[in-house]
Amino acid sequence: MATRPSSVLTFSDRPMRRFAAVSLALALALTGCGRGSAEDAESGKTGAGSVDDAFGSVDIAGAERVVALSVSDADAALAAGVVPVAMTEAPVEPVMPWAQETIAELGGDDPELFKWSTEDTIPFEDIAAWEPDLILATGTIIGEDTHEQLSEIAPTLATAEEGHPDSWRSQAERVSTVLDAEDVGEEAIETAQTAIDDAAKEHPDLDGRSFLVALFHSPDQVGVLSDRNAATVQFFSELGLELDPVADDMTAGKVPESLSLEKLDVLQSDILVGYFPDPKLRKKYDGVPTFSSLPTVEGGHFYQPTDEEWRGLRSVSALALPEIVGPIAEKLDKAAVGS
User: Fold this and answer.
1) What pTM was estimated for this model as a whole?
2) Alpha-carbon distance 138 to 71, whole Å?
């Protein structure tokens, strides 16, 4: 895998746990992911499951060469015991720590990495050259035309609902089913859910608090996550937090989702999660009165994720959750209590 070292950003307190499903996943990976019937074995099939998506269904005999179109798709494959032959490069680190750790545990070859930003930049020729027998697009949004192009290369599993990425649970279930690794996927789901439940119990101050998630991506515009179906929103909700009602006003078009500096006063939630892709922007916003005077900022109810935490939040997966939920819940708790 042509990649740069992934040692720039790490959770200093990230527990180095082995995933509960790894040994079973490794056994499946070494046997070609198959647990089919004797009839399947005689016909050369591995009995992989049929899974519906927004554009039809995927029904394959088995998949050993998987291409993942999103970071969470790669995580879902890894959680099911399959190392992709190629996967989308993560924006923060080429391969996130939990994925790199699992690749090593499964003993697979390092995947090829690729980037794409819009459907027009998907590297179709490269994907075809990797000769996949399955393409995963459950954690990203693609249109029907793109799905058709990808399906000409290999069976392509898209999201269950057009226009909406799968939740982390739905993704893990659907991907593990199509890979004929339901037992492994279920163990990964149980491990992730336990981590969430434990974090919620350990941080009761989060229960019922309102939150908003903002991306401070430029000196004069702030984007706000308003989609209740977004993986980040669902993750916070499972910890007991509640999306602030202004997000619904944004979805309805009553309030813009991209805020100018003069409109930052609408960010009145109990906890404000704000990410700055450029550290210099935080210093700039500290000098903006409409930001610095926000009750969340003045009262210490502002949580600024690290680059790695932000990537984990934006690509929530069953594989990532056991690693990210504890440190993030702890920081959210501090924001709930305030300074």
Assistant:
1) 0.82
2) 10
242-279 pLDDT tens trace? 999 999 999 999 999 999 999 999 999 999 999 999 98
Write the Ramachandran bin of 300: left for phi over 0, alpha for psi from -120 to 50, otherwise beta: left
8 Å CB contact between 271 and 211: yes
The pair of three-digit structure tokens given for residue 131, joined into one six-digit string: 């000769």
Phi, psi of 250 (to 5 degrees): -70, -45
Give me 247's structure tokens: 């997000």
For the stretch 177-203, pLDDT in tens is 999 999 999 999 999 999 999 999 999
Q: Which runs of consecutive H residues, i.e. helices, occur in 107-179?
A: 124-129, 144-151, 168-178
CA distance 179 to 77: 8
How far is the C-alpha of 45 from the C-alpha of 48, rounded, in Å? 8
- Tokens coding 207: 């229960």
What DSSP letter does each residue of 103-172 carry, written as one string?
A: HHHHTPPPPEEE--SSGGG--HHHHHHT--SEEEESSS---HHHHHHHHTTS-EEE-SBTTBPPPHHHHH
Tokens of 282: 């935080």
Q: What is the dihedral of CA 121, 122, 123, 128, to 10 degrees?
A: -150
Nearest one of 275, 272, 206, 203 to 244, comparing CA atoms? 272
Encode pLDDT of 104-139 as tens digits: 999 988 999 999 999 999 999 999 999 999 999 999
- Residue 11: the pLDDT is 23
